[in-house]
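Pair request: fold both.
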Amino acid sequence: MRFLIIILLVTSLVACQSEKPIEESAVDRWQAIIDGDYETAYDYLVPSYQEIETLQSYSIRLETAKIHTQWKKAEFVSKDCEKEVCDVTLKIHFEYSFPRKSMGKTEMFSRLHEKWLNKDGSWYHVPDKL
């Protein structure tokens, strides 16, 4: 009986995890990028995109983008969903370092619009260049 209860509990936890809301998935992906956890961020990419870009090239692209930019925080702003597809708007806070050190740094934010796809209960980011 105890074994059955444990199985049911684990199954329900896995089900809850796979049904993570789009708001949480979008912010979690950006938090992984901010933390330099590119493998986790890569796992949020739609599987068809993972077929054309490796984790290594994805990581290199993100590291290259960080030469002058340090992402600080991601905030969910809004979503517009139809069935299994959502357009998500995020607010990304970052610090930009000018190429000339004498010009210093500045903190700012940008609004990003991302497309997300729900497949089998999980949300995946669909990059623009797919």
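--- second member of the pair ---
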Amino acid sequence: MKETIRVVFASLFLLFCFSTSAIAANETPTTAVKGELPPGLIIPEVARPGPAFNVDKATEAYVNLLNDEQRAKSDAYFENGYYLDVADTLIVVLIAAFLLFSGISRRMREMAKRVSHRPWLYTTIYVAMYFVLIFLLTLPWNIYMGFFREHAYGLATQNFGAWFGETLLGLGLSVLFGAPVLAIIYAAVRRVGKSWWAWTGAISFVFIIFFAMIAPVFISPMFNEYKPLPAGELRESLLSMARASEIPADNIYVFDASKQTTRISANVSGMMGTTRISLNDNLLNRTSPEEIRAVMGHEMGHYVLNHSLRLVVYITLVLTFGFLFVHFAFDGLLKHYGKRWDVSDRGDPAGLPLAMALLTIFMTVMTPLNNSITRQAEAEADAFGLAVAGEPHGFATAAMRLSTYRKIRPGELEEIMFYDHPSGYARVYRSMTWLKENQQDSRVVKAMQNNQ
């Protein structure tokens, strides 16, 4: 037993050292590259509308806005992420093995039972302890991933204290909300027997909807300050787009993401009366009004096309099949190792590390499917945003800004496997295709006149 524990611990340590050193070897030289595109709307000469307008040439002109160093930097950041995702899964599996073979998981359950023999309460206590222990065991990896790596690419702005404070806040929320949710799931597992996986899928659907509803109002403001967008032409144009799209929002909010990141972003979040249109201050302060309207048109597309609910349904279906996989794999492993781990059945919370490891493996294998589901929705929102905003150059410029940390031009299989959004090249090409078919659109004509 002691030898097993030493092997697992050594494997965790070596995996962390190998992953960070190997990936950092590729990342460190890029830190000196300045990846920012110049502020303001960018319209390459060949991308201006006219009788000789060519979609392929216009797209290439936009893609070539990235120099070789910038492209190498974004490629390295994105491609290294493929290996980091696998490393994440391996770490979860190795930690599960450590907790089970060492008997720590069993002892955590016994500690929880000493507080109360009521299943719902000792399960809640066990899950809370599990979250804290996982946080501690993965802390070195998460510091590298969430702090050092992001700073190496110029994507983070927080000092370590601020970053760690928010990380602790995330842990607190996980314990506060996650422990009771998992206790409810375990109660269902004990009550319904072999059909637990289907019931757990249904319970997951309800809680995903619930958290999507409360997040904009109660959770997001814990991490960022939200203020109304100042009155002016931009605010009125965005509200006009929202009214035309029948989005029930009477305000536009700006949140202070620049204290955490250099990335641009926006969203239309919430459900059932908590809908909120938001953009971050990076998008507001570092891009043009045309880009902002294009990005917000895309985000409004998610709302109008009901992507939130649709994606929750799809994700829940995938999760449910994941629970079915856990059902068979868990029971099979328990026959061989249940006595050694002192895990009695699938309703025993001491088996949670195994269940989490199996579900993580399943979701990693399902990455191409999950990415394809999301990427399709993003492509639909792209098309909607182009139509409602009428800003093809704004959308193309925004896509190029995102490509300073997303590989601009992946292979076809690479995009299917690893991209949860259309590639930058695909988005620029879609924008230029829309422009070719709508050169006489009054919005396009006005934009060209303003950018002569």
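Observation on the second member. Strands lie at 226-228, 252-255, 266-269, 276-280.
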